[in-house]
Specification:
Layout lengths: L4 E8 L3 H13 L4 E4 L52 H16 L5 E4 L2 E5 L5 E5 L5 E12 L16 E2 L5 E3 L12 E5 L3 H12 L7 E4 L4 E5 L9 H17 L3 H10 L3 E2 L9 E7 L1 H7 L4 E3 L4 E4 L3 E4 L2 E4 L4 E5 L14 E2 L2 E3 L9 H13 L3 H7 L9 H19 L23
Parallel strand pairs: 1-2, 1-6, 2-3, 6-20, 7-15, 8-18, 9-10, 9-18, 10-14, 11-13
Antiparallel strand pairs: 4-5, 5-6, 11-12, 15-16, 16-17, 19-20
Amino acid sequence: MRGPLETDYLVVGTGAAGMAFTDALLSHSDATVTLVDRRHAPGGHWIDAYPFVRLHQPSAFYGVSSVPLGRGTVDASGINAGFHEAASADELRAYYAQVMDQHFLPTGRVHHLPCSNHSIGPDGRHLVTSRLTGEVREVRVRRKLVDASYLEGRIPATSAPPFDVAEGVRCVAAGDVARVADPPERYVIIGTGKTALDTCVWLLTQGVPASAIQWVRPREAWWVNRRLHQPEEGLPDFFAGVGLQLKAMAQATSVDDVFARLEADGFFLRVDTTVAPTMSRGAMLGEAELALLRQIGDVVRRGHVRRIERERIVFDGGTVPTSPGTLHVHCAAVGLARPALRPIFEADRVTLQPLFWGFACYPAALLGVVEATIADTAEKNRVCPPIRYWDEPRDYLSSYLALMAHDRARGSPRRGGLGQRHAAEPDVGSGRPP
């Protein structure tokens, strides 16, 4: 075993959160950082993502603060026409490789250990094991472990279907739809979340008739209207959307009433207006996509799929027929993890978790700034209490309340003596509009 590697911070996970945190830490401190990930390149789940996936938010709201993602252009054609570009999986993989190779590593303060597993030995030592050679190397951490994998979820590309599949049944993960060589008689899309939505939209834009698609939706979801979440010239509408939310929350008498008001205002969307959604995870949807999805008339709502047989699909609440010529598309992975909350800042550890309703990368970048600029652990946790990722409609309200509470906490006087606000909070590149 080679000699130990010494570092100030050991970041486990080089997905969007780990990269945004590291970028902020490098920008606001002189710390050294070692990043470790089991994947061969930075980018987290984007390395494994289905080939036709795109960001559901504008590229300008994603990535790390110091390296803008995208060119700041507005799409002139396609399903996203009229809106700011939304990066594809290929663009995101290239972007994170650029951040690592051209921004992090040239500082001389970053060490990258891809294709490696992190573990903590019984004696408390941090060990990194190469998945290629099996070599084990100790990493001596002078300051903290940063766990950017605590909330790592599961995606169809790397997770088996959460239901049984009988022999002879054609069943593939979402991404494999793009590699089908033998056209099926019809497609059965299984799932409620963004992966299922993207798969349906992609099939329809590729010329598959809506009549050839059956959509199994165990739940109905609320979606955020992309039109009200645009940067630059779209900021007036963005802030109008903020006003609509505050007005609805002030006037509504229930959670359902909040959503009803915001649906009437065009802030929230749902595919089927006759079914009450029980899911709300904050993903965005464009109205052009919505129009396409509403073309699919064969929707099955019988609970979760338990088993697919050659001639039928078995649900919590009954069965529906299928056939050997049908391609069943697994889009039903758990997605984002929702484990028990723990303090984000501890004496020897930072556990990245969401802070409030908002774009994905900004909170992680903010945590990097807080770690670099506030010394007192209690004060860090005061201004950055974590919340769980939202899942149900009521979670939208509690996470938005957390957003307002965080803004108030960060604006209040600090025991650490840093004034009313951080000297340089992350900007729009970290996912929060200015």
